[in-house]
Design a protein that fits this description.
The chain is 29% helix and 17% strand. With 199 residues, the chain is α+β, with helices and mostly antiparallel strands. Strand 2 and strand 3 form a beta hairpin. The radius of gyration is 33 Å and the shape is elongated. The C terminus is likely disordered.
């Protein structure tokens, strides 16, 4: 065997061995010694760790529940227009529909209702600010506001009542739907610049 080939072979082998060890050392994690736990004296009370807080479950939305209020059936007139939109979903921004707020007499939250104009498959998301009188004060205190400006879509209730809130909002939506339809708008739901978001 040629001595030059043997030297090259040995050098390559040693280089691979050194390279492998370096790569292997980079992947190892260092173990830091942990200080031992202090022993409790006999007269010291033992401290029990507090239980971990439960993970917040997602809020229930209206699409997951039966519709709790009566609405007239959807009918089509001779002109091909419908009497009301289809109500697809409703929910609060923060409050669960089933559990409700922590304090039913003092709450505030944004309430959303998703509707669809069947005639042209146009959907809209209406937004209302809903609060109790004590909830308005709480909102002002939480946000450190000296005054609170309420826009047109604000609903003040005496206490938490999902059926009352939904019934009031649905009646307002149906009223505006009928008015827009009668005014000859291309679809009976409001446009982008009005009080809701287009979906």
């Amino acid at each position: 065997m040629d001595p030059v080939k043997v030297i090259i072979f040995v050098a390559a082998f040693l280089l691979l061995l050194v390279l492998g060890r370096k790569l292997s050392a980079m992947g190892e994690s260092a173990i830091t010694p942990v200080a031992p736990l202090p022993e409790l004296a006999i007269d010291e009370p033992a401290v029990i760790a507090a239980p971990r807080p439960k993970r917040k479950e997602p809020a229930v939305v209206g699409a997951e529940l039966p519709f709790p209020i009566h609405v007239p059936p959807i009918n089509r007139d001779e002109d091909g227009r419908y009497n009301r939109p289809e109500f697809l979903n409703y929910y609060f921004e923060e409050t669960d529909l089933v559990r409700g707020p922590e304090n039913p007499g003092a709450f505030y939250d944004d309430f959303y209702v998703l509707v669809r104009d069947i005639e042209n498959d146009h959907t809209a998301l209406y937004k209302y600010f809903v609060a109790t009188p004590a909830g308005l004060q709480k909102a002002m205190d939480d946000e450190h506001l000296p005054a609170l400006y309420l826009e047109e879509q604000a609903l003040i209730v005496s206490r938490w009542d999902v059926q009352l809130i939904l019934d009031t909002v649905v009646k307002d939506i149906m009223k505006s739907y009928t008015e827009r339809k009668d005014d000859g708008h291309p679809h009976a739901l409001p446009g982008d610049d009005e009080r809701f978001e287009i979906c």
